[in-house]
Amino acid sequence: MQKPTAISGHFHAVRFYKDDDSLCSMVADFVGEGLGIGQPAIMIATSVHSAGISSVLASRSFDIQQLQENGDLLLLDADEILSRFMVAGMPNEKRFNATLIPEIEKACRGRTARTIRAYGEMVDVLWKGGHTVAATRLEMLWNKLAATHDFSLVCGYSMGNFYKDAAIEEICSHHSHILSGTGEAALVN
User: Fold this and answer.
1) How far apart are CA 151 and CA 138, in angstroms?
2) How far apart are CA 28 and CA 45, in angstroms?
3) Per residue in 99-133, pLDDT tens?
4) For the segment 76-86, what is each residue's pLDDT rounded down to a tens digit?
5) Using CA atoms, how far apart are residues 101 and 93, in angstroms rounded to an integer?
6) Using 50, 70 and 90 to split pLDDT, how confident is the model at 166?
């Protein structure tokens, strides 16, 4: 396994987490590493995780307020972003693109050849709510968007929501990598 440093090509990783602290630390590693090499970041998280990840980043000497003011860190609420593109319980592709593409472009701020680091928790929100088909569809929309926009994405899923290994295999099949608890990335076979 390898750490996702200097990510190139399609990187859409999944992290199955046991507790909030491990998730926040891993996402802070991923986002912080990107910020450290000039990659802007978008975090689409629940308010609890956004605060936790921001706290970890701040403890590592990242100035969250300055990063936000500069447009290098966008903190977006997962439930609010979901509400913009969900139609009849499913992600609508047109609305998804109309919601996420402007955020990616905002983070790029006209800089070309700039990879965005993104953390997405919307799929976990859907999965926890019992909307597993919608979560899977959202993973597919992210993959489709990756064909036209340059971003490295990590999705977080709470292990407490999985009762069968088959569901984990289904989720993994929509990702290019699986992240370990230490943030090392393994290719999905």
Assistant:
1) 16
2) 12
3) 999 999 999 887 777 789 999 999 989 988 889 89
4) 999 999 999 99
5) 11
6) very low
pLDDT of residue 158: 78
Q: What is the CA radius of gyration of the chain?
A: 15
Residues 6+ apart with CB under 8 A from 170: 136
Residues recorded for the chain: 189
**CATH node for 11-187:** 3.40.50.300
Q: Across the chain, what does the average pLDDT equal?
A: 85
pLDDT tens digits for range 42-60: 999 999 999 999 999 999 9
Cα distances (Å, whole numbers) of residue 75 to 87, 105, 176, 181, 187: 23, 14, 24, 23, 28
Pairing of strands 151-158, 73-77: unpaired
- What are 27's two structure tokens? 């996402």
The secondary structure of the chain in percent helix, strand, coil, rounded to multiples of 5, reads 50, 20, 30
Residue ranges of the domains in the chain? 11-187
User: In whole angstroms, what separates CA 13 from the centre of its chain?
Assistant: 8
